[in-house]
Amino acid sequence: MRRFLTAATIAWISGRMRSAALALLVGAALGTFARPAGAGPRTSSLAWVRMPGAEACVDARTLALAVERRLGRVAFVPPTLGEVAIEGRIERSQEAGVWRATIRVFGAGGTAIGSREIEAAQVDCRAIDEQLELVIALLVDPDASLVLPRAAGSPASSPAPSAGGGAPGAGAALRPAPLPPAARAAAALPACPPAPAAPSASWRVGGAAEAVGGVGLVPGPASVGVGVRAHATPPRGPGFELGGVLWASPDVREAPGSPAFSLAYGRLSVCPIEIVRGGTALSGCVGAMLGSLRVEGPAVPIRFRHERLVFDLSLDTRVRRRFVGPLFGAVGLGIAVPTVRDVYFYTDAAGARHDIFRASPVSTILDLGLGLELP
To answer: What is the pLDDT of residue 368?
Structure first.
């Protein structure tokens, strides 16, 4: 009758014998495993949980035996003896309508090494058994030559002939086949989880309207004005500021005809210091201010200097704070140093000179702004 045994029957008998042998080896290993790490293949422990609703999925023992069958050796030991711990669970995702298996790997001391998810939209959760076996086998031994399952509908593998050249023996072994590189690459888990992608940096641009106060720019103890300011900060490198200020026209009562001074300038600054913490940004800038200081009045003497160019160097610091969405408030404090200190004067009928104003060697400027910044 043995001559009528098909190759499939012989393979089935061989598989049953091999499973029984592996079960005996697992029992022996669980009781006597005491070899040091590095003495042989890496040892692992396996914890497998079927979540509520997944009771019909593969159980822990069946999964462990299937993995060891692929490896061709005993691979799993108690958690206290394993070099790595493999923990997995399977559940039904109601939102996505798929079966999801999550596998995590931990090293010595509970350090997380990586994780892997497998999903399948089939009705039967046993449809992903082979994928689970393959992934876990490669986690246990990334360099192993795995026994690949026979494809459905393909002819059964013929066992090795016996030494006497007769009928194949029931105990003939199935030789492990090397795993194709593509399958190994698809199932292999990286040694460490990939680092999260850094958020892409982008330009930050904004603009604000300001109320400005200063000392030493125009006659009088203090002066006020209005201004606008725009800033741009690239992902790398210094930021830039561009703006302008129009100061109010203070009167000088000592001069004939009560002349009035008016100051307007534009400014450009480079900000090599930019510190951002949450919604607050601190910047430090150096720049230049270019404009004109004009004096006019109905009875200004002819020898009075009417308008002069202003070119000052500036140094300032500013704090911006976001309130809601793109809306921010800002406060800044800076100094301006004139490159030329012009004197404004007039000469009376007797030829006497009367100085009206001379720019301060260092002027102080305070500004308060409200604006929008993107993104």
So the answer is: 95
d(C-alpha 371, C-alpha 207), whole Å: 5
Main-chain dihedrals φ then ψ at residue 362, nearest 5 degrees: -140, 120
Measured between alpha carbons, how far apart are the two ends of the chain, in Å? 82
Q: What is the CATH number of domain 204-374?
A: 2.40.160.70
Q: Is the pLDDT of residue 330 over 70?
A: yes
Residues of the chain with CATH 2.40.160.70: 204-374
What span, in angstroms and rounded, lies between the C-alpha atoms of 29 and 273? 64
Vertex 46 angle, CA 40 and 48, to 5°: 165
373 forms beta bridges with 206
Alpha carbon separation from 291 to 157, 221, 226, 263, 288 (Å, rounded)? 92, 21, 15, 7, 10
Question: Residue holding tokens 């604006």?
Answer: 371
Residues 205 and 211: their CA atoms lie apart, in Å, by 20
Could you say which DSSP state residue 76 is in?
B
Question: pTM of the predicted model, to two decimals?
Answer: 0.47
Query: How far is CA 231 from its chain centroid?
Result: 25
Give the pLDDT band (50/70/90) at residue 19.
very low
Model pLDDT for residues 146-176, shown as the tens digit of each residue: 655 544 444 444 343 444 444 333 333 344 4
Q: What is the DSSP letter of 127?
A: G
Q: 20-70, pLDDT tens digit by residue?
A: 443 333 333 333 333 444 456 778 899 999 999 889 999 999 999 998 888
Structure tokens of 112? 């997380």
Backbone angles phi, psi at 313, to 5 degrees: -100, 145
Strand (E) or helix (H) holding 136: helix 129-140
Q: List the Cα angle 180/182/183 in 5-degree steps.
A: 70
